[in-house]
Design goal:
Radius of gyration: 22 Å
Shape: globular
Number of helices: 15
Helix content: 40-55%
Distance between the termini: 56 Å
Number of strands: 9
Strand content: 5-15%
Structural class: alpha/beta
């Protein structure tokens, strides 16, 4: 079980060898060093994952680290209250063009999650000139009540867009870096791909520890009882969050289903009119996503990835939802139904960034995974490899160890204080800010 020196390796770097990527790598020494997980247990992915699930990266006292946390809220077009936290160094006066990292966390998580706060503290202690905005997925933050029946969805980019627009409007000259962790990686890639002009908002888009394709992940679950355990834990956390809002959410869908049934009984219009009703309902009434979902759907049609259309009548059964033991059941009984999709396969086609990544060509991209991640497994590696073929400033980096979001570092029994993921991400972001600034100077000469 112990990790020998020879069994530890440096991260694998896959890219097209562009001058830009080479310059970025030169500024990231950790990408050339061996990553050594804790000696006694660090190479056992299941121990690694379970410890992270139980302990996270430890509790972080942001106050003691000198970090200020300011909660902000904005209203979406449908009246949902979208919240996010702005993290800055206490007492520091920032220049207008101080960088912002806009972070999208994993499923059922928010700015108060342990691993998010660990990243915030490590980043602002070591790079105090930066600022960090963290999206709180709709329904996950007990500080902010729901104001509609809508909660977050793994394919929806609207909430993230509202945070980006808030930052851009208030600090128009600040460079932005988009970061997504786990499920958040799916969202930030979808966001950058839906509208190509969004790519110019960012110095880089970073996706960490995600599986790129929902159905590919679902198909893997029956292969491993331990993987079933991990997705069981994820499902329980999601349902615990959903249970806090079940009265509002399920009452809405009881009314919605009744209205849909009445519409069906009234008869159908001709094919052309029916298509308009479907897409109109999708835009106006869909509560898993909102306006940006229509953009996402339009992008799928535009780039020839799908002919999926939402179903007219969808019943969301509260008892069936809370009986789910795995995330695959939640996708079937809840996610695809509130999205009005006919099947999980259709929903996956809509929500998975694997269907859009080919459209991200105008911004540096970092795709980061661990080979031993039991949740986002290496069967998904074809998607980032396809992407580096079309984007000369894209890099796919994967480590031998690290498990899912854990990346405990060094030590024999107890790991070192700082995890490798936070260290590599901040080095990469620092390198990107320097290299893109240098590139801009050269272009203006």
């Amino acid at each position: 079980m112990g990790a020998s020196e020879s069994s530890c390796s440096a991260p694998v770097l896959e890219h097209r060898g562009s001058d830009f990527n080479n310059a970025v790598i030169e500024r990231c020494p950790l990408l050339k060093e061996r990553y050594r997980p804790p000696w006694l247990w660090g190479q056992n992915t299941h121990i690694h994952t379970i410890l992270f699930g139980l302990l996270g990266h430890g509790k972080t006292d942001l106050e003691a680290c000198g970090v200020d946390d300011e909660l902000q809220t904005v209203l979406s077009p449908d009246g949902s209250t979208i919240s996010f936290d702005l993290f800055t160094v206490k007492g520091r006066e920032y220049v207008d063009d101080a960088p912002w990292i806009i972070l999208c966390p994993g499923i059922s998580n928010n700015s108060q999650s342990d691993y998010v706060q660990t990243f915030v503290a490590y980043t602002l202690v070591n790079f105090p000139a930066w600022r960090i905005a963290v999206l709180n997925h709709l329904g996950t933050d007990p500080r902010v009540p729901l104001t509609t029946a809508r909660i977050f969805n793994v394919g929806c980019t609207e909430s993230y867009d509202l945070v980006v627009q808030y930052i851009r409007e208030k600090w128009s000259s600040a460079p932005l870096v988009s970061v997504g962790l786990s499920m958040g990686g799916n969202i930030v890639l979808n966001y950058a791909a839906e509208k190509p002009e969004r790519q110019k908002f960012f110095r880089a888009v970073i996706s960490c520890c995600q599986g790129y394709d929902i159905m590919a992940g679902i198909r893997r679950v029956p292969e491993s009882s331990l993987l079933q355990f991990y997705v069981y834990v994820m499902a329980r956390r999601f349902l615990a969050m959903l249970s806090r809002h079940k009265d509002a959410v399920f009452e809405h869908w009881r009314v919605e289903h009744s209205r849909s049934c009445q519409t069906e009984q009234a008869g159908k219009e001709d094919d052309e009119q029916s298509d308009e009703v479907l897409l109109g309902s999708y835009t106006k009434d869909m509560h898993c996503c909102n306006d940006s979902s229509t953009e996402c759907y339009a992008a799928m049609v535009k780039y020839g990835k799908t002919s999926v259309k939402p179903a007219v009548v969808t019943e969301v059964n509260e008892k069936a939802v809370f009986s789910c033991s795995l995330m695959s059941g939640i996708f079937e009984e809840f996610m695809r139904r509130i999205g009005k999709f006919a099947s999980v396969e259709d929903y996956s086609t809509f929500a998975s960034c694997s269907n859009y990544m080919h459209n991200i060509t105008d911004v540096p991209v970092l795709l980061f995974n661990a080979d031993d991640d039991p949740v986002a497994t290496d069967v998904c590696y074809q998607f980032p490899r396809d992407h580096i073929d079309i984007n000369p400033r894209s890099m796919f980096i994967h480590t031998q160890h690290g498990s899912h979001m854990a990346f405990y570092n060094g030590g024999w029994l107890f790991p070192n204080k700082h995890n490798v993921l936070d260290q590599i991400l901040t080095q990469y972001i620092d390198a990107i800010l320097h290299c893109t600034a240098d590139q801009e100077k050269e272009e203006t000469r």
